[in-house]
């Protein structure tokens, strides 16, 4: 079976593939369908890039300046894994043809290393530290797509959404905290067309696994952790075992994790279904199926979790208290179970977002404000755009864009200018 994450199958002609990919890319940008030989993973990424209004000829933004970058890198978990990246990929990065890059979970480049000549060429497309290479800002690319798909992937030449990047080929793998399952970022190697080889994908995957094992040595104790921010199906990690839960089971686990003393059947039903009339047997069947998945973790009378379950939502809430909005945003990949309409989940989701926004609006720091407006859930947030425009000096980069966003959103919402 052909590996869908590899860019070229054995015997493929790279030059012919590039030509056909460019034709398919131009057809798609002109409003046509995605046609072969575009791989499904690339086709999905092109659609996400188009939906996010990524510019096919644009310049990737640099979001972290020297001071903000230094602080962010020093406090990031992946800083501990930097010796592993350099040991396994450093020699390749210094061979004059490749770059080693590591980004955070938002796609912001933390380290870009390699031969000075290759780095200078990459600077022309803003492949530099502090730049944001997620799909929303850079279109299809290996680190950004690895983050979006949560899987190691190669992106070959004209598979890149942005034409300015189509001279390059890259392979990247996502990095996780094995204790919690939290996505930490991605490791990438970037170079020429010769990287479209199975060895490059295997190499970044092996490097990611080695880095995760290295980081796990710092937190060896068993842990039960629920990840539900920015995803519709929660991930439960129990002593290193990863369980992807269905949507209803995700809602139940979120509610029980936030009610450690437990809930009666009636209370849980109200939080799940609201005033809708639902037969008790329906909830009991859901709980029975969930117990089959999580075993003795789920107890009854009342329904509760037998041992504490940490959650990414609680982690963000704690970060707001101890580290402020910047620290909280680093662990906030999106709203809590964003598609859930369970009343109890909606209340938890709205409360966390409200607290996060309050912290943003009162901090006066443009960096977390800019980070919020660069997300799908914050791009139309008028109050935050106004706070950002006020926080930026008149001649600072991004001030004109912030003022333009404020004017646009005031018109959309029918709000008079001040």
Automatic annotation (TrEMBL):
Protein name listed in UniProt: GAF domain-containing protein
Domain of life: Bacteria
Transmembrane segment boundaries: none
UniProt cross-references to InterPro entries, sorted A to Z: GAF, GAF-like_dom_sf, OmpR/PhoB-type_DNA-bd
Span of domain OmpR/PhoB-type: 240-305
Any GO MF annotation of the entry: DNA binding
Gene3D superfamilies: 3.30.450.40
GO term, biological process aspect, one: phosphorelay signal transduction system
Keywords, in A-Z order: DNA-binding
Entries under Pfam families matching the protein: GAF
